[in-house]
Design a protein that fits this description.
alpha/beta, eight-stranded mixed β-sheet, eight-stranded parallel β-barrel, 36 helices, about 45% helix, elongated, disordered N terminus, binds adenosine-5'-diphosphate, binds magnesium ion
């Protein structure tokens, strides 16, 4: 991949003076926790943990600047680097009292990648570096444990061979070549039990394995495995930098918007050994439960293992709480560490550790990834514990994660009628039902066909990312709660059940066997990522706690802890935000929900959505088929009462909050039948000839309806439609106001590009308003404004503001018209555009700030130049997307409007924007 052109700000330091290598160890460190962009997250926190005197093995970090240099200079290093590494190695040797390559007391190191943001499992780490045929004997002698020494050596050969020398699966090969060698040896040694665990291989067996591994490397690469530790180190460092640009790392960065030019750091650190026997082991833990947020030490531990075994999910580890019994002293140390970490970092930590002969060593810490549930609970509880302030709580929770709290769970009745077929570990909460697929590719294509998909794997690996993204839920047979599947699912907010060891998954037949039942590709399964249960078939889902408290009202706040922390967070957010939030809602019950979710009004009521109910559609069709204004008037008169009663319902539900009502927008052909049979039906109903219907349908046909006769163009050509709609609004307003409820209609004219379009429509609205006020002898207050959704409107916004009392940015159409890109057709090329980074994100989901945003800025400025206090809002899909909400805040809009279920997200994002000021 070509490197990025450098930003003009990138400094060009004279490489002599630059510090590239940062040492840490024995309570001292060159770096610290704030230096994440230079040292990567892992390196910065290793330095920080060293400083606060946690037991961290000594080592050094090679900075991300070296990675940048590496890619900018054709994969070479700055000249000053080598000497700095030499010095750091000497320091490390002195600190450990061991020497690289020494025949009696060799230093072994881990070479670990570490980007600024953690990218779990995306890049490569190499352990036990420094071993060769000589040093392995020294290790065996000093440890008096030959088995351990050769276990380290074979792991090293395996990792080095794979990562540095490229000994990997070739196309057509089922298994990793090193695994094949292991399986072969097991078959020779244990012909009756070829699937024995690795721990059954003794020293001699492991030694044989190292010989065969070296042979394999030679055969596959034509090169010998390098004996010289310094050469090994060079190779490993290069491989870590190289892994920054492997395919899965690139996909990951794209998904999480991590710039390619950040680069990774490399950490070189003295090894500690979790594989010396049963008083050793490796673990991954969280200072609180990352699924629920409960304040307990949570995680897992593998006895007699090096850390990769835990993360890779090949052996299923035991819960870390088990250490309380097995290694009480280590358990006590872990509890201490947990408190030290939280009181120092003020956040939930995800940490990796190794126990070597009863002694605890810290290998990594970072802010833990967590579910939306856990994010909210932890933040709110940490405020109560005085670890953080409410501002921090608001700032810290990814606004999008709130949508998880509103997601459905399995319906408790539906659940009773089905039998749990197996259980796994609850790793990503929520309920998911879908057709099962056993490969990421198939899952992805099924999802593209519109199927609901569960990805079922023995275990997942970073290659599966695309399939995981596409799936509703992820189910694995192996791996624990910190396996790859679990980590990634939690981050994506996907439902996940992992380590369901009873599942027998057979990739070759695409089937799954469990307790006497068989499921094949395409069959339905359901999984509950909150409990770990697996059900056959499709299980009905039911609303979340939040929805039950706020909308269904069959649960009280007292009964729902998660509702209570949610409500607390929302209160803090509301106290801080300046943007108002409104909802896009078309019906009285939807408006009710929106108000329950915190809407301060309706930002977009699409009147045409009301046209499809009951026999209204017939009146609509009659209106469309009318041959003259008179006939059209008669049909419209039949529609009037229906529209009026809907508006009245909305005004009542709003109890005095404002409602932006958009006049008819879509092209008329959307309302009429296109096939012959339904045309005949309609003709009969209306008492006209089928020919006439067919002819009118033909007349209405448009080549490009999105840019056709729609929006205010309808009201211009058929003023009687706008008149009817205005009358319905004002009569409803009069009626509701007379009953003692305040009413604040804001009539919005869509798709305006020319000031005159708006003037004509506004004049008409005022006329009707006047008539209705006189007829009903009532005074109504209302606004008339326009939706800004055409580039022309943005650039003549000063003209438009002469008559418009408000602007509401319709960013769906504004994006389509600005980009000249149809939202409904963009699917065929947008993915490629994202891959090529022509656009970073889908502009229909995340506002294109550099283009559409610029036009909005212009419209805001021009609009205000004419009308200082013009009311400004946004009602496109973007109104519920956090980054876009923050942009709207910066533009100084008065409100954002989004679908009711996105409101909590918008409220939190708006508060975050306000705190950023
Ligand atoms: P990742 O970023 O993929 O988590 P790490 O660099 O953290 O990769 O390494 C993976 C695992 O290797 C760690 O969880 C740890 O158990 C083990 N490991 C890393 N460094 C050391 C070390 N110095 N001594 C022993 N084990 C280590
Ligand atoms: Mg790690
Ligand atoms: Mg529009």
């Amino acid at each position: 991949m070509p490197t990025k052109s450098k930003s003009p700000k990138a400094k060009k330091p004279s490489s002599k003076s630059v510090k590239y290598v940062y040492s840490f160890g024995n309570g001292k460190a060159d770096g610290n926790g704030k230096m994440k962009s230079l040292l990567g997250g892992k390196g910065a926190n290793l330095a920080e943990m060293t400083r606060i005197r946690l037991p961290v093995p000594s080592g050094f970090t090679i900075s991300t600047e070296v990675c940048t240099y590496f890619y900018d200079h054709n994969r070479t290093y700055p000249p000053a680097l080598e000497k700095q590494i030499d010095e750091a190695i000497h320091k490390l040797e002195a600190s450990m009292g061991k020497k690289f390559g020494d025949a009696t007391n060799p230093l072994l190191v881990a070479v670990r990648s570490g980007a600024r943001d953690s990218m779990p499992g995306m890049m490569d780490t190499i352990l036990n570096l420094g071993l060769n045929d000589r040093t392995v004997r020294a290790l065996a002698e000093r440890s008096r444990n030959e088995r351990f020494a050769y276990d380290c050596y074979r792991r090293f050969l395996q990792m080095y061979g794979d990562v540095v020398m490229g000994v990997q699966k070739r196309t057509g090969e089922e298994h990793e070549p090193f695994e094949v060698v292991i399986e072969e040896l097991k078959k020779e040694l244990f012909p009756n039990d070829p699937h024995v665990s690795d721990t059954k291989l003794d020293a001699t067996a492991l030694r044989t394995l190292t010989d065969r591994f070296r042979k394999l490397i030679r055969e596959r690469t034509g090169k010998d495995f390098p004996e010289d530790p310094r050469e090994q180190l060079r190779g490993a460092v290069g491989a870590v930098f190289g892994s920054w640009n492997n395919e899965r790392a690139i996909i990951y960065r794209r998904k999480y918007n991590i710039p390619h030019e950040w680069g990774t750091a490399v950490n070189v650190q003295a090894m500690v050994f979790g594989n010396t026997g049963n008083d050793s082991g490796s673990g991954v833990s969280f200072t609180r439960d990352p699924a629920t947020g409960e304040k307990v030490l949570y995680g897992e531990f593998l006895l007699n293992a090096q850390g990769e075994d835990v993360v890779a999910g090949v052996r299923t580890p035991e819960p870390v709480l088990q250490l309380k019994v097995e290694m009480p002293e280590v358990y006590r140390q872990l509890q201490d560490v947990r408190h030290t970490l939280e009181s120092h970092f003020h956040d939930m930590q995800d940490f990796e550790f190794t126990v070597e002969q009863g002694r605890l060593f810290m290998l990594q810490t970072r802010n833990g990834k967590r579910t939306g549930f856990a994010a909210v609970r932890i933040a709110v509880e940490m405020v109560k514990e005085k670890l953080i302030k409410p501002d921090d709580a608001v700032r810290r929770i990814p606004a999008d994660s709130l949508s998880q709290l509103l997601a459905p769970v399995f319906d408790s009745n539906a659940r009773k009628t089905t039998q749990v077929i197996a259980r796994g570990l609850p790793a990503g909460p929520g309920a998911a039902s879908g057709k099962i697929y056993f490969s990421a590719n198939e899952a992805e294509s099924a999802a593209q066909r519109g199927e609901k998909v569960l990805l079922v794997r023995i275990e997942t690996s970073p290659e599966d990312i695309r399939g995981m993204l596409a799936a509703e839920g992820i189910l694995t047979a192996r791996g624990g709660v910190s396996s790859h599947a679990a980590l990634v699912a939690r981050q994506m907010g996907k439902v996940c059940v992992c380590g369901a060891s009873e599942l027998q998954i057979d990739y070759s037949t695409n089937s799954l066997h469990v307790r006497g039942q068989n499921f094949r590709k395409g069959d339905y399964l359901s999984i509950d990522g909150t409990t770990g249960e697996i059900f056959p078939g499709e299980v009905k889902t039911s609303p979340s706690d939040i929805v039950r408290v706020l909308i269904d009202k069959d649960l009280t706040p007292a009964e729902s802890p998660i509702y209570r922390v949610f409500a607390q967070l929302m209160q803090w957010a509301d106290q801080r935000r300046k943007l108002e939030v409104r909802a896009n809602a078309d019906q009285p019950d939807q408006v009710g929900h929106a108000v329950a979710f915190g809407a301060q009004g309706v930002g977009l009521c699409r009147t045409e959505h009301m046209f499809f109910e009951g026999d209204r559609i017939d009146h609509v069709r009659e209106m469309i088929l009318a041959e003259n204004a008179d006939e059209r008037g008669k049909a419209l008169a039949k529609l009037l009462p229906a529209q009026r009663s809907d508006f009245a319902g909305i005004f009542k539900a709003l109890k005095g909050l404002p409602a932006t009502i958009r006049f008819l927008d879509p092209p008329l052909h959307e309302f009429i039948p296109h096939d012959e049979a339904s045309q005949r039906d309609l003709a009969e109903k209306l008492g006209i000839s089928a020919d006439r219907v067919a002819r009118r349908v033909k007349e209405l046909h448009e080549f490009n309806p999105m840019l056709g006769h729609r929006g205010c163009r309808l009201g211009i050509v058929y003023p009687e439609i706008s008149e009817m709609q205005a009358r319905a609004v004002f009569e409803a307003a009069a009626e509701v106001q007379a009953s003692g409820i305040k009413v604040r209609p804001e009539i919005m004219i869509p798709l305006v590009g020319f000031p005159k379009e708006l003037e004509l429509q506004i004049a008409l609205v005022h006329q009707v308003a006047q008539k209705v006020q006189k007829e009903r002898n009532i005074k109504l207050s209302y606004l008339v404004g326009t939706m800004i959704e055409i580039p022309r409107a943005c650039v003549v916004a000063d003209e438009i503001a002469k008559s418009a009392q408000f602007f509401s940015f319709g960013t769906n159409d504004l994006t389509q018209t600005t980009l000249g890109m149809s939202r409904d057709d963009a699917g065929s090329f947008l993915p490629r555009y994202q891959e090529e980074e022509i656009v970073r994100q889908n502009p229909f989901a995340v506002l294109d700030q550099g283009g559409v945003g610029k036009l909005m800025e212009t419209a805001v400025k021009l609009g205000r130049s004419t009308r200082k206090d013009i009311k400004l809002g946004i009602c496109g899909e973007h109104g519920g997307e956090p980054d876009s909400v923050k942009f709207c805040h910066r533009l100084g809009l008065a409100y954002v409007s989004c679908s009711p279920f996105r409101l909590p997200v918008a409220r939190l994002a708006a508060a975050q924007a306000a705190l950023k000021e």
